[in-house]
Amino acid sequence: MTTNTTAAHGTSAIESGIGPAIDSGIGSVTDSAIGSGIDYAIAAAEAARTRLDFAKSAPKVFRAIVGFDAAAREGLDPALVELIQIRASHLNHCAYCLHMHTNDARKAGESEDRLHMVAVWREARHFFTEREQAALALTEAVTLVADGGIPDEVYTQAAAHFDDGELAHVLALIMTINTWNRVALATGKVAGTDERK
Predict the structure, then answer these.
(1) Are 181 and 94 contacting, i.e. CB atoms less than 8 angstroms apart?
(2) 6, 22, 31, 48: most buried by Cβ count inside 10 Å?
(3) Cα–Cα distance list, 193 to 37, 44, 82, 90, 197 (Å)
(4) Using one digit for the tens of pLDDT, what is the confidence trace for 63-103?
(5) Which of 173, 96, 183 is nearest to 139 (CA)?
(6) For residue 31, what pLDDT band results from cuts at 50, 70 and 90?
(7) Does the pTM of the predicted model rise above 0.70?
């Protein structure tokens, strides 16, 4: 088990003097100061993390999940991949994966409007294609499988928008993001960090 004890406990970023500075001209926190404060908070949270490093503790298993993830996304539209991963991460309350995949989506050109609407896509259907809506509904059903299985209408709608090979990859992607969410949550991964770097 990895134990990190270098974080100063009980001291905020502002109290320590390392966090954000106040813009004395207008009395507001500057954007760069906010960034510095967030960076400090992320570093402090990571330093305080006491759970094992899954990739180092089970490298063969970790590489197998990476391989499963790569195979699952093969042939799928990158924008759809990120929407699926974002929605599953919302449902699983995985801040680490949500932060990672919203950033990946932005880098791939996804709009802020659509990113904001993923959690409420049913009320904002006009932001998403029918194919994306079918994938999001399937993502919800598979992620929340214990709540009622996979309804026939959800599966049928997805099958109408994806051929068998694509649908198998969408299902595999949903399975991999649910696995990643559970790895991140179980090991206390810190939102804002990214072990891929």
Answers:
(1) yes
(2) 48
(3) 14, 11, 18, 17, 9
(4) 999 999 999 999 999 999 999 999 999 999 999 999 999 99
(5) 173
(6) low
(7) yes
